[in-house]
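WARN no homologs supplied; continuing
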Amino acid sequence: MNVAYWIVAGLLALFYLYGGGVKLVRSRDRLRPMMVWVDSMPMAGVRAIGLVEVLGAFGLVLPPLSGIAAWLALVAAIGFAVLQIGATAVHLRLGDRRIGLNVALFVTAAVTVWLATVWL
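OK structure emitted
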């Protein structure tokens, strides 16, 4: 399970590190082609989501890697599952039915939650 955790959590962390980093540094105009929903919220909210995603990515990797507060990996994985529930709701509220990526990320986060119990 240890190897499985590192594979799944590593991929999830890379995705959120990239996605969160993009939300932190790009303008609304540069985000719009990828994320239509950015028009429905203030940029401070978009930046806050980006920061949460970057911190969560570090939370999946650093605690188990260092052996300090490894339970935080479980918290980060749960946070990503909750984030995807909210993201799916936003997409559906805006009439965007393309939620395949959200569902895949939710399932990946849920598997990571299960695998993160190895650190407890």
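Residues 13 and 57 are 4 Å apart (CA to CA).
OK
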